[in-house]
From TrEMBL:
Source organism of this protein record: Acinetobacter nematophilus
Entry protein name: Molecular chaperone
Residue ranges annotated for the Pili assembly chaperone C-terminal domain, each copy included: 166-227
Highest taxon of source: Bacteria
GO cellular component: outer membrane-bounded periplasmic space
Length: 234
């Protein structure tokens, strides 16, 4: 059976399995692709005890897209590879210069890494899973007017019609860890469903205890996976 067909056929199953079971570990929590680079590299490491078959591709926020249907303007090489136990492999991501992307803001794509473990020894009963990891890939134009850390400080938060509104007036995707309202009595109230906000966009949330809040505390994730926490007063 053709390897590419075999791996693609496992996508539906792999989407239901958590990445904690994977033998392949990806260095970093996201990929940044500066527009002036010919390519960027991503390091994979097989921390399992057996050889792994790996397929990689990029999608344009379509979670069901596979390597044969994706419309993302990127090439990943090698698209299919094997990685021995305790060994590594570098992926090279190349942008298709024929497609034009926004020059005044980031564009979000997703890097997919599908890990198919080796078949166990014959004669043993087994249940085999293919594991797919998805990491955000941000295509970042050069010449943006502000730096990422400056963008964090420009977030705006306000009450609008009894709902919390968070505004991102910057050219960056803002990615959040857990965030909270700080109530007048000092207690915290978690803001749910806040994952990321696109450039130059707003989101509104129904939040418990909004009327009792004096400020909102937001934890943002930078390019290196570190957290920056800011507080906005109402």
């Amino acid at each position: 059976m053709n390897k590419q067909f075999f791996i693609s056929a496992l996508l539906t199953l792999s989407a239901m399995v958590t990445s904690a079971q994977a033998g392949i570990v990806i260095t970093g929590t996201r990929v940044i692709y500066p527009s002036d680079k010919e390519f960027v590299s991503v390091q994979l490491t097989n921390v399992g005890e057996q050889i792994a078959l790996v397929q990689s591709w990029i999608d344009d926020k379509d979670i069901i897209a596979d390597p044969t249907t994706t419309k993302a303007p990127f090439i990943v090489t090698p698209p299919i590879t094997t990685i021995e136990a305790s060994k590594g492999q570098s992926l090279r991501i190349i942008f298709n210069q024929k497609q034009k992307l926004a020059s005044d803001r980031e564009t979000l794509f997703w890097l997919n890494v599908l890990d198919v473990p080796a078949k166990p020894e014959q004669g043993k009963n087994y249940l085999q899973f293919a594991i797919r990891n998805r990491l955000k890939l941000f295509y970042r134009p050069t010449g943006l007017k502000i730096e990422q850390q400056q963008a964090f400080q420009k977030i705006e938060a306000q009450r609008t019609n009894n709902r919390l509104e968070i505004n991102n007036p910057t050219p960056y995707y803002l990615n959040f860890a857990k965030s909270h309202l700080i109530l007048k009595n000092g207690a915290l109230s978690e803001i749910k469903n806040l994952s990321f906000i696109e450039p130059f966009s707003k989101q509104q949330f129904d939040v418990e205890n909004l009327a009792d809040a004096k400020s909102v505390q937001l934890s943002l994730i930078d390019d290196y996976g570190s957290l920056s926490t800011i507080e906005k007063q109402f």
